[in-house]
Amino acid sequence: MKILMICTEKLPVPPVLGGAIQTYISGNLPYLSKFHEITVLGISEPSLPNQETIDGVHYVRVPGQILEIYREGVIKYLESTSFDLIHIFNRPRLVLPVRKVAPEAKITLSMHNDMFNPDKISPEEATAALEEVSNIVTVSDYVGNVIRNLYPQATAKITTIYSGVDTEQFLPGYHPKMQKIRNEIRQEHGLENKTVIMFAGRLSHNKGVDRLIRALPELSKKFKDLAVVVVGSSWFSEDNVTDYVAYVRAMTKKLTIPVVTTGFVSPSVIQNWFAAADLFVCTSQWNEPLARVHYEAMAAGLPILTTARGGNPEVIQLNENGLVVENPENPIGFVEKITEILSDKSKMKNMGIKGRELAVSLYKWDRVASEILGVWGDAIHTSSSSVPETLTDIYVEQEIIKDLVSADSIEAKPTDTKSNNKQKSTLEKKVEAKPTDTKSNNKQKSTLEKKVEAKPTDTKSNNKQKSTLEKKVEAKPTDTKSNYKQKSTLEKKVEAEVKQEPIIELDNKPEKEIENQGIKDKSKTHSVRDMIKESLRESVRKTIIEQMIIDSNEVSTEDSISNLIRELKRRRNIE
């Protein structure tokens, strides 16, 4: 399947300048690209070429920074290239322009912020955009609930997929790979023998690091070995001294507690600062969607103190991997919670251990990618008209042939959930082959699981969960009286050749009606499948199977089918 992932217009991919969405995309690509042909469309950056292919992923970059300019580049690119599915990140205002130029593609929308608020997009445009998307992925329940409250009609399309972290990049300071780095950073900045509290994020009123600074005088009365590290700048990759940055720096100069301000730190080395810290504090004042620094802190084995804002508390198990400040506007809340953590060293250590365990078990990129694959699969299978071009008829018919010439495959229906998955086609196995999902709440099911649960023969399901293979296998002979209007290429060819033989009595009746008559006369065959099954039971089956294997590799599928038909007719004449 051809997939286009459209990033936002602010920062490039890969995340050479940082950015949560850019990191999200890059973290998932190694896993997603194993299953699909992926192109990433992002903004141009002097340090990156306008087009390149890395590890099978194609990158296209167009001018950005301003949405209107970026949109022009996106549309121009889509005018020359088609995709089965387009995944738009955090820009619902791109949905309608993309739909106009790509009318046949499925659209998935990933929401990382409250971009559906009326001050971001008009209700009219939002409503129209929601109608065009197949599904909406959100990084937290909070983000999803905001959309639900504004537009209840979108509820069925919303799925929360929590973000992830590279647990091999972010390691605890006590890990053998990080011990030397931790010691060097602490020595260089005078942090030896200190309990280091770390903040990482943009320096802005919304992020609220000033609340932590204002809490330090009171904390210094309780703990004599404190130090603070503030990692970040006013904007990604920039170190401009804004009024807020100047305000924070002025406050730190009045403190007796050492405060290190790093400025912008590249995403490729920021893990070193996490390893050098002992406690991570998120001071967000606004309704944070769910800051990815929480995942990084957990992976680094740090206990977490965060705020009851937006989605931040959703990854906190109280007293297990961290605590939550309910009223972050008041610095006293930080004083109380930091005191609670630092006063119990055993609890502090266990919180860090638990955080690391959660990062490894729940928040690795392979889990995120597996859930994205499931969402993409749902989007493609919402209607039969959206079959991806990569699933060609020849490939599908080859899968059907394999099922037909296998006695076991003939006896077991492809969608029989009691077969313990022994009858899965190559296509189904490829779809199911995905990273293990460690979640036990069963919220996020793979495409194949949902496909198996949705019975293909249930007319109420509108065939929305059927794969191309399942639809072709289940297709019934055309009969206007029976309303069977679906017929695979294989069935057409076989039926056209053999229905004139006197021994085969289909009587132009629906298969269900034939099946209801029971099998009283062994000389009658009730379906094309049964006819083939009976014919292959004798020793000639081995010869046919061997010939089919050769044919599938050396000649076209149509020739293989013709060989099968001729052999069956010869078999009938012998009998």
Feature tags:
single chain; 575 residues; alpha/beta; Rossmann fold; 3 domains; 23 helices
Give a verbal description of the structure.
- The structure is a single chain.
- By secondary structure, the protein is α/β, with parallel strands linked by helices.
- The chain folds into 3 domains: 2-160, Glycogen Phosphorylase B (Rossmann fold, 3-Layer(aba) Sandwich); 179-362, Glycogen Phosphorylase B (Rossmann fold); 391-416 and 423-574, no CATH class.
- It has helices at 20-32, 67-78, 95-101, 123-132, 141-150, 179-188, 209-222, 243-252, 271-276, 293-299, 331-342, 345-362, 365-380, 393-404, 407-411, 426-432, 447-453, 468-474, 489-498, 511-516, 528-535, 540-554, 557-574; strands spanning 2-6, 37-43, 51-54, 57-62, 85-89, 106-111, 135-138, 158-160, 195-200, 226-231, 259-263, 279-281, 304-307, 322-325.
- The strands form 2 sheets. Strands 3-4-2-1-5-6-7-8 form an 8-stranded mixed sheet, sandwiched between helices. It has a 6-stranded parallel sheet with strand order 11-10-9-12-13-14, with helices on both faces.
- Helix 7 (209-222) crosses helix 11, helix 14 (393-404) crosses helix 18 (468-474) and helix 22 packs antiparallel against helix 23 (557-574).
| Total domain count | 3
CATH architecture of the largest domain: 3-Layer(aba) Sandwich
Q: In which range does the helix fraction lie?
A: 40-55%
What's the β-strand tally?
Answer: 14
Brief summary:
With 575 residues, the chain is an alpha/beta fold.
Q: What does the secondary structure layout of this molecule look like, with pairings?
A:
Blueprint: E1 2-6, H1 20-32, E2 37-43, E3 51-54, E4 57-62, H2 67-78, E5 85-89, H3 95-101, E6 106-111, H4 123-132, E7 135-138, H5 141-150, E8 158-160, H6 179-188, E9 195-200, H7 209-222, E10 226-231, H8 243-252, E11 259-263, H9 271-276, E12 279-281, H10 293-299, E13 304-307, E14 322-325, H11 331-342, H12 345-362, H13 365-380, H14 393-404, H15 407-411, H16 426-432, H17 447-453, H18 468-474, H19 489-498, H20 511-516, H21 528-535, H22 540-554, H23 557-574
Helix pairs in contact: 1-13, 7-8, 7-11, 10-12, 14-18, 19-23, 22-23
